[in-house]
Amino acid sequence: MMKRLVPTLNRVLVKRVIQPAKTESGILLPEKASSLNSGKVIAVGPGSRDKDGNLIPVSVKEGDTVLLPEYGGTQVKLGDNEYHLFRDEDVLGTLHED
Predict the structure, then answer these.
(1) Are the C-beta atoms of 10 and 48 separated by less than 8 Å?
(2) Distance CA 61, CA 33 (A)
(3) Who contacts 72 (Cβ-Cβ below 8 Å, separation ≥6)?
(4) Could you tell me which of 11, 87, 90, 98 has the fewest CB atoms within 10 Å of its CB?
């Protein structure tokens, strides 16, 4: 049976991007060389509400590549895949190709 996780409130489901340990030509990279902590947004919640009850939407959307804090988030395992749940305000920013 396949499970699907839909985040609640202002939470974001992210699959971390594992940076390659070596280059295409076979040069091994040290751990610190690939220290950019990023992930791909898999699902987002509807957002949170302010004190007046107005909906505050989540600032990222599905498919975005985001910069994540080194620590934090809740680890979630669905089948063989490992994901992390972050609050919208914990996401540091979005990454874009030039």
Answers:
(1) yes
(2) 28
(3) 86, 90
(4) 98
pLDDT in tens, 1-21: 457 788 889 999 999 887 666
Contact 38, 67 (CB under 8 A): yes
Phi, psi of 34 (to 5 degrees): -115, 45
Span 42-72, pLDDT tens digits: 999 999 999 999 999 999 999 999 999 988 8
**Other beta carbons within 10 Å of 23:** 10
Q: How confident is the model at residue 79 (pLDDT cuts 50, 70, 90)?
A: confident
Q: How far, in Å, CA of 55 to CA of 37, rounded?
A: 29
Cα(77)–Cα(66) distance, rounded to whole angstroms? 20
Nearest one of 91, 97, 89 to 14, comparing CA atoms = 91
